[in-house]
Amino acid sequence: MSHFENSAPAADQILLSAVIGAGQAGLAAAYHLRRRGLVAGEDFVVFDSNSGPGGAWRHRWESLTLGRAHGIHDLPGLPLGTPDPTEPARDVVARYYGQFEELNELRVIRPARVENVHFENGLFVITTSRGVFRSHTLINATGTWGSPYVPHYPGANEFMGEQLHTKNYRSATDFVDQRVLVVGGGTSALQFIQDLSAAGVETVLSTRRTLQWTRREFDAEWGLNVERAVAQRVQAGLAPLSVSAVTGLGLTDYYIPDIEAGLLISRGRLMRLTARGAVLNGPQPDGRGFPDQGVANEYVRAQNVHALPGQTTAGGFWEVPIDTVLWATGFRANVRHLAGLELREAGGGILLGKDNSTVVKRPGLFMAGYGASASTLGATRAGRRAAKGVARHLEAALH
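The chain above was modelled as a monomer; its predicted structure follows.
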């Protein structure tokens, strides 16, 4: 078995390394630690808060598949191949990650929630739901799924309908006979609109700014440029933007028909929520209006954009009745458990070295899947860099 639920290293054992997280970054890091001669379950351990393989993917909604808008990069030494395009991504990835763990004998400890980490007597002290562990080095690969972001809007506490985040979305059929306001300008927001509409659910899309459509080809050079842009913020000690925040949205045949049909049209910025509605700045004066759609304007057919029910408000905005608000507003780095290490810079981020992995304030700590390495391609490379950093640190500290 690649994971063991009732055994772990002895409490008095000092590990050479520990990996927090068993997603793309954590598994890649563990693979490269083994390649460098460390034995899983003896020299190092991998902690996973989930009950089984798959990382954050195991929590995604059923209709999400590994299609043109979502995909994962191969883990080292085990090509994913071409999955059934109709199979839920959560099932594909859980099976793939599980195979990788088995093949590489990673012996992931799960479920094991890391509650906090501090540094004492030259060691990282890791308090988990499965006990306390001590290690010379630490790789944090917790990604973002555990830290959903919901922005503050006036009236949110007064709204009487349901509010949920991307993290809690399960199925479009949960919203039959409702009007759902989807707030967000990323891929998830657009695919929620498509998913809900296919189930007959009425939707309203609200974005803070013009949707960032782009015609640029998403090739390898583009991906590296995106990672560099995110890395610049991290190396300045600023809180990282998500990779998706700087990629833009590919204006492809995957979306164009729904733009033409009037479905993927932003109805403007959310100004506030009311007890049973949402006030938008786009649909005034009669509920039919919408703001500039950026690069997608040439595909917009005004006659297909339906009038929203509701009424004009003070200031000339439009209040539309809403049953549910779906916050597709992204995630932040999931690093609360590292608070005891006091890593934050004045700009709110964790300062990394030039390798985009080494934590400047705490030698021996490495980040994988943070900032520029939040994508699956970046996470795979970051896992390798983190393992290399661990080997370098151990060589200097123990020899």
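The chain is about 20% helix and 20% strand.
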